[in-house]
């Protein structure tokens, strides 16, 4: 598994397909969090939203690194197609963890906040929740499921917009509503933990669906 993750990292670095989603993330962070003040939960909701969009795009890019022939070679070399899929998910998650550090501390650098360890923990929960959901959407909307890129793009946009704007929809919209209306981070830790568990379940379910569809096609 470690070798597969290293292979995925080296390939994405060589092709530079990470640049567009990472630049989008930093751009959104600059627009949404510069010169902020007051309670931190709304600022971290913005950071999580930026990471949500970035993780979706980045995962789709990672899932598209190899063409059909190269993927077949990698699958045969690794022994199981599921290992290849999990390696891509692991690469996306590690990348998002690195971006989370920026998402946690950039608002503190450019804004005026009174930060506590509880605030940082809430920010980590929120960003990890959105990263997991974004990775799940990216996996499901990859070419392992959709052979035509146009269909994959429409599906990804629909799922992203639904997760962001469907009122009360857990985990993303529900989490953002809680963070926008509650200024006490301590009160949000338990609900945010619940949203994180839902996000992990969504990722597991979408991964299982993607693997099932890919195995049938291959």
Brief rundown of the structure:
With 218 residues, the chain is an all-alpha fold. Helix content is 81%, strand content 0%.
What's the helix and strand layout?
Blueprint (H helix, E strand, L loop, with lengths): L1 H14 L3 H15 L7 H23 L4 H11 L2 H30 L6 H24 L8 H17 L6 H10 L3 H33 L1
Helix pairs in contact: 1-5, 2-3, 3-5, 3-6, 3-8, 5-6, 6-9, 8-9
Plain-language structure description:
- The protein contains nine helices and no strands.
- With 218 residues, the chain is mainly α.
- It has one domain (2-217).
- The longest helix is centred in the last third of the chain and has 33 residues, at 185-217.
- The protein starts with a helix and ends with a helix.
- The model has no long low-confidence stretch (mean pLDDT 92).
- Strand coverage percent: under 5%
Please bin the fraction of helical residues: over 70%
For the biggest sheet, the summary is:
none
Radius of gyration, CA atoms, in whole angstroms = 18 Å
- Helices, by number, come to 9
End-to-end Cα distance: 21 Å
Mean pLDDT: 92
Rough outline: elongated
> Structural class per helix/strand content?
mainly alpha
The low-confidence parts are: none
Number of domains: 1
Order of SSEs = HHHHHHHHH
Total strands: the figure is 0
Give me some keywords for this one.
about 220 residues; mainly alpha; 9 helices; about 80% helix; elongated
């Amino acid at each position: 598994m470690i070798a597969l993750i290293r292979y995925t990292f080296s390939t994405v670095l060589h092709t530079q397909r990470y640049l567009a989603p990472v630049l989008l993330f930093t751009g959104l962070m600059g627009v949404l969090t510069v010169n902020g003040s007051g309670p931190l939960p709304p600022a971290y909701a913005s950071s999580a939203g930026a990471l949500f969009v970035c993780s979706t795009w980045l995962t789709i890019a990672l899932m598209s690194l190899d063409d059909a022939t190269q993927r077949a070679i990698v699958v045969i070399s690794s022994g199981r197609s599921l290992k290849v899929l999990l390696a891509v998910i692991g690469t996306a998650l590690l990348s998002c963890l690195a971006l989370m550090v920026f998402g946690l501390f950039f608002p503190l650098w450019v804004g005026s906040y009174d930060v506590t360890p509880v605030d940082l923990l809430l920010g980590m929960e929120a960003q990890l929740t959105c990263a997991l959901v974004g990775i799940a959407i990216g996996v499901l909307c990859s070419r392992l499921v959709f052979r035509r890129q146009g269909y994959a793009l429409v599906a990804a946009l629909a799922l992203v917009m639904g997760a962001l704007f469907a009122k009360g929809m857990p985990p993303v919209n529900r989490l953002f509503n809680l963070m926008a209306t509650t200024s006490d981070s301590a009160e949000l830790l338990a609900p945010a933990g619940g949203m994180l568990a839902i996000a992990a379940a969504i990722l597991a379910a979408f991964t299982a669906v993607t693997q099932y569809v890919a195995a049938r096609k291959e």
